[in-house]
Structures
1.
Amino acid sequence: MRNKVTVVGAGNVGATCAQRIAEKGYADVVLVDIVEGLPQGKALDMLQSDPLVASDAKLVGANSYEATAGSAVVVITSGIARKPGMSRDDLLLTNMKIVQGVTENIVKHSPNCIIVMVANPLDAMTQLALHVSKFPRHRVVGMAGILDTARMRTFIAQELNVSVEDVFALTLGGHGDTMVPLPRLATVGGVPITELLPPQKVAAIVDRTVKGGGEIVALLKTGSAYYAPSAAAVQMVEAILLDRKRILPCAAYLDGEYGIKGVVVGVPVKLGSKGIEQVIEIKLTPEEQALLKKSAEAVKELAQVMKI
């Protein structure tokens, strides 16, 4: 019997996430959205591609949560994008209401699930879901560092004209301007990039990584990235469903690790069938530690606005 995965939000990120999970064939997928007909139509379209991609996964779309009952993993992508004239606090409070309602429904129908948060502002929404669900911290995890790391790996591979498979990179901190890429730990085939690239090239890669999402938004004009974000979320779902014990940078609630307590921030974790099975603490330089603390403080400010 296959596991069930629910994806909340049938927009670009959610629908692409559902498609990728179903095509791998190891989970049935429920796609939920408030827009009548949207998740049903997209799920039916995906289902009809099963014979062409050799998958027997079942897909259904729904406007309510009854069909999601008993989900092993729930991926939350719902929320709105920032609109002209809307402040960050406006966006935060609007998405807060959406994510709060979604989380309450998830808890009601799948009380034993693991929540993977993709909605923005990512770290704050992860902390909100943890607060609302009352789940233990290992069962609520946010997708951010995997995406940011994938962008950094891409830029390194492009610069050096090498396979992305041989590139390792790591980013910590919040998903946004306060993220903390760690170029000193980035390697190609085990060789530090600091030995392969001049400092100005490394600095340019770091800067492009931090601005990676904005670069895509500027090119698209309307909308934002969804291919890479969905792939990042699916890597997390796979690690959980298959108990792969992957070491991945994720948004996790810290309780003293890295000297940070009571806030969600991006750090390396071991991801398996129980969710976050271990927070991996690496030794940071004083400068890196200060940047990570600054990033955590930014998330804490958003949590205070939400009064959680």
2.
Amino acid sequence: MKKVSIIGAGHVGATCAYYVAEKNIADIVLVDVVEGMPQAKGLDFCQAAPLRQYGVKVTGTNRYAEIAGSDVVVVTAGVPRKPGMDRMDLLKINTEIVKTAARAIAEYAPNSTIIVVSNPLDIMCMVALDASGFALKRVFGMAGILDSTRFRWFVAEKLGVSVHNVQAMVLGGHGDTMVPLPRFTTVNGIPITELLPAAEIQALSDRTREGGAEIVKYLKTGSAFYAPAASTAEMVEAVLTDEKRIQPCAAYLRGEYGHEAIYLGVPVLIGANGAEKIIELDLSLEEKAMLDRSAEAVKEGLKALRSFYTMA
């Protein structure tokens, strides 16, 4: 049986564990610093197994050593931004959390693939890469799948069609500068540019960029976790089953799309070796300009990171 460890047993981590469990493809270890919490959730998941028809084991622990032998390790640990906390405060706190997790992964699960979910996503991927010392393909981030699935839902809702007929592509950094690509977004193969006027497509693109903020506005003291967890579970499955699925993910660029040494959301072939291949789309001048702006925002975040964290 394959093994997946999830570091951070909060809403995203625990929900991801549930979705992975229902795929029946791996035993799961939930790790969290809060004593008793991951143990309780692991036991609760196991007791649901007879009713939900999964036979995998879910274990909760406070010890990183329990991730030994993992094929995939998901990092969701981190704190949300709180009132009075600026972006630099958040960056410093989550950098330390992700750095600690990545070093533990390197010690106890050196042959695993790391999927980063913690925010700010693109920056935390770089921290995990640096702290783990893993190969570039074995550290990548969940972002574009989430942004694309939100775009899929908004398009399906607008057109009154099955969401299963809609495929979408969203590139760039995970944030306000993400780049929905209507030209590569289709309904059963038909580009939405053939089905919707430009103004409505722009409105859907804008709503996608604000997808997380819209949920935060409703919750007031929390953020989305069902869709992020489902998106992460899709990535875990693609790695464990060597599925060769093409999805937009935060991958390390080495000249692709004209950018070097940053993580950015691009189409990636996901398989047993992680982010196995980056797919370069033939972007229009306008699309490329938007992606460049998104990359610049990520580079600004990296500059802030390097102001207090020395990369190896």
3.
Amino acid sequence: MRNKVAVIGAGNVGATCAQRILERGLADVALVDVVDGVAQGKALDLAEAAPLEGHDCRITGSTQYDIIRGAKVVVVTAGMARKPGMSRGDLLEANAKIVGSIIPQVTAQCPDAILITVTNPLDAMTYLAWKLSRWPSERVVGMAGVLDSARLRFFVAERLKVSVQDVQALVLGGHGDSMVPVPQYTTVSGVPITEFLPAAEIEQIMQRTRDGGAEVVKLLKTGSAFYAPASSAADMVQSILLDEQRVVPACVRLTGQYGLKDLFCGVPVKLGSKGIEQIVEVSLTDSQKAALAASAQSVRQEMQALDALVSHAAA
């Protein structure tokens, strides 16, 4: 019997994530969306593509959560995209309501699953999912660092005219303007990019990474990135289902690592069948430690705002 993966949210990210999972032959997929017909229609379309793509994985779609029962991994992509004139606080409040409605359904149907959050603001939504699920923190992880690192890998490969397969990269911190790309751990076949490029040019690439999502939004004019986010989530699903033990940057609960405690932030982790199997601590320069602390502080402020929203709603 194949594994099952649940994808909550059948928008561009969710539907493309489901497609990636199916076409890699990783698992059957249960796709859920609150809008009637959306998950069902996309599921049928993807199912009809199976004979052409050469896989036998099955996909079902519904507005009801009973179809996700028994899923080993649950990917939450549902949420609003940030619109013009919308503050980060507005987005936090709107998506907290959405994620808050999803998590009880997930815990009821898949009490032993591993949860991957994709909804923004990513770090705060991962914290909310952990808090509401009451699951062990190793089973709740946010997808951001894989995406940010993939963008950095592409930008480096493009600049140096090398294969993206030879480039590895590391981005730490919160998913946003305060993310911390780390040049000494960004390498081409093991050689740090500091051996290839001057500091000023490296900083330009790092800044483009920070602005990677905004660059796509500006070009699209309506909508936001979804191919790379979907592939990033699918990569995490693959590492879990196949117990690959891959070391990837991801948003996890820190309990003292990097001098940070009781918050969710992006750091390197070992990802396997049990979820987060190890948090990897790497050496950082003083300036990188300060940047990571600043990034973590911005995440903590979002977590505090989220706690205030939850307390107000419960009052």
